[in-house]
Design goal:
The structure holds two protein chains of two kinds. Chain A is of the alpha/beta class. Chain A contains ten helices and ten strands. The chains are: A alpha/beta, B alpha+beta. At the A-B interface, helix 1 of A face helix 1 and strand 8 of B.
């Protein structure tokens, strides 16, 4: 069950294939495909996926052109990964059947829209299916550009969605415009994303909206952390990703953010989202690098030693702990982890401590 | 002439080679007529590893039995490749290094490294190097019971060959 090449639906011998589209079909992450036993393989260090990530899929693909994204309309068609891995196309019927068979430990499913006219309606249809046929909590990662007014959000809530993801991705309006808006001839607007975010918090509640942000698109640590505070003050949470250059994308030759940069931003996010710290109390050097977290030594030590700050941030499960843990979503399993999908052990925490001091 | 093999579910283990179980290796060893041996990954290992993205070999000219010769990596898993013999490295399959997914397509045609053993006769006597079909089957079934990662693991166990070893007591997850 391999994903179709973008925009073609053409098999290797030139024969046209019927494209299998949403709402009947979705693309699953490699981790979800492995968890549901569509793909072989196991997770390094005994990691386990606790939330299924599903992506709506259309022959015409995503209409946006975000510079870093594997789904971008500007990406070379022979490249087909998204966030580093394959996303095989599978029928929703089969996903639900296998969820019941192999996914007893699963806590949540996330249905991601792409920028496509059918995406909102299909997101609602797929969410309803999971609501009616499984006991998973349901998140929707929405494409705000396809959402006008409050009604779509209310419809998602009625369909069983209890958490909303808003992928703002970029830390500043300038970077947003550069990589998602006019800079790439893309349709997205920073102001509209924020309008939808505020509506989502109003409809779904405080702490029920997660903003996706990607570290390493050219922002300083200060800029990213300031945005964390703005999001928190608006009643939402932040979910962090580390930029990974997708082959064939506009940014395929961009470097990944340095580990020290990522770790500091990650810890700051944890403090702010947990209401243990605030941006205004943090200190930065001239390069915009974080030099003081603005909390007492005791708080700093407690948080770092616990290790939870270095885990993947995402939507929670029924137990309140992070379910969307995206194992090895940001790096190869042979590399140092940026987001731990499990509680880091003492060696991992030792590494993280050292990384926090890398400038 | 077709090579005989032993099957466990959908996995096959050709009997023209040995299987190294030391260190959980799941490496096969094929003895060439020129006295060298070729090493590769068995189908249990490729199922566990998932679709391979990288094979990397250590820069060594000599290896010891049980030591690592390199690593394999998929999107979500990484581990080492262990040698069942001591000897000199005499060849590397560059095509496989560039196209590791060929191992998933056919693990037994895809050798990774070739070694000239110091003492193959002695190494072949090791209890960790299996050639007997029943011993291979028993080992793989035990590994399956421990592993949660197989595609349709329960089906594999149910489809295991019948007879006294039919796993009525198996509890696949």
């Amino acid at each position: 069950m391999t994903s179709k090449k973008k925009g073609a639906g053409i098999s290797g011998n030139g024969a046209k294939q019927n494209y299998r589209q949403s709402p009947d079909y979705v693309r699953t992450s490699t981790a979800a495909a492995m968890t549901l036993k569509f793909y072989p393989g196991k997770f390094h260090r005994g990691a386990r996926l606790d939330a299924l990530n599903l992506l709506l899929s259309y022959e015409s693909g995503c209409y946006a052109r975000c510079g870093y994204c594997g789904l971008s309309a500007s990406r070379k068609p022979e490249e087909d990964s998204f966030i580093r891995v394959d996303w095989p196309e599978i029928s929703v019927d089969e996903v639900i059947e296998r969820t019941k068979k192999h996914g007893k430990h699963l806590q949540r499913v996330c249905v991601s829209m792409i920028t496509h006219p059918k995406a909102l309606g299909d997101c609602i249809k797929v969410a309803k299916r999971f609501r009616d046929e499984t006991n998973l909590e349901i998140s929707a990662l929405i494409g705000p550009t396809m959402i006008q007014g409050r009604q779509p959000l209310e419809m998602l809530k009625k369909a069983g969605v209890d958490h909303i993801g808003v992928a703002i991705d970029a830390a500043t309006p300038e970077l947003f415009e550069k990589f998602r808006g006019k800079g790439v001839r893309g349709p997205h607007k920073w102001e509209h994303y924020w309008e939808v975010l505020i509506d989502a918090v109003d409809i779904f509640g405080k702490d029920y909206v997660g903003v996706h942000l990607i570290v390493g698109l050219g922002e300083t640590e200060k800029q990213m952390i300031e945005l964390f505070q703005q999001v928190r003050d608006a009643g939402a949470c932040t979910h962090l990703f580390s930029f990974y250059p997708e082959g064939g994308s506009v940014m395929e030759k961009w470097p990944r953010p340095p580990m020290g940069h990522y770790r500091r931003v990650q810890l700051a996010r944890y403090l702010i989202d947990g209401d243990m710290g605030r941006f205004e109390k943090m200190k930065f050097n001239r390069k915009g690098q974080l030099t003081d977290f603005g909390v007492s030594k005791a708080v700093y030590e407690k948080v770092v030693s616990a290790g939870e700050a270095f885990m993947t941030s995402g939507c929670p499960g029924k137990d309140g702990k992070v379910a969307c843990n995206r194992p090895y979503g940001n790096e190869r399993p042979s590399e140092k982890l940026r987001n731990y999908p499990f509680l880091p052990d003492s060696d991992d925490i030792k590494d993280a401590r050292a990384q926090l001091k890398e400038y | 002439m077709a090579v005989r093999s032993v099957s466990v579910g959908k996995m096959k283990f050709p009997l023209d080679r040995r299987y190294y179980k030391g260190r959980g290796a799941h490496v096969w060893l094929f003895a060439d007529k020129d006295g060298t041996v070729k090493l590769g990954m068995d189908s249990f290992l490729t199922e566990n590893a998932g679709f391979l993205n990288y094979i990397q070999l250590d820069k060594k000219s000599a290896v010891r039995k049980g030591s690592s010769v390199g690593s394999f990596e998929s999107a979500k898993f990484v581990s080492r490749i262990y040698s069942p013999v001591s000897g000199k490295v005499v060849g590397v399959n560059q095509d496989i290094l560039k196209n590791p997914r060929k191992i998933n397509r056919d693990p037994y045609k895809s050798w990774i490294i070739s070694i000239k053993p110091d003492n193959l006769k002695k190494d072949m006597l090791s209890k960790d190097l299996l050639g007997d079909p029943e011993a291979i089957k028993d080992w793989i079934i035990e590994e399956l019971k421990k592993s949660e990662s197989m595609t349709e693991t329960v089906d594999y166990l149910k489809k295991a060959d019948g007879g006294p070893r039919n796993r009525n007591k198996c509890r696949g997850k």
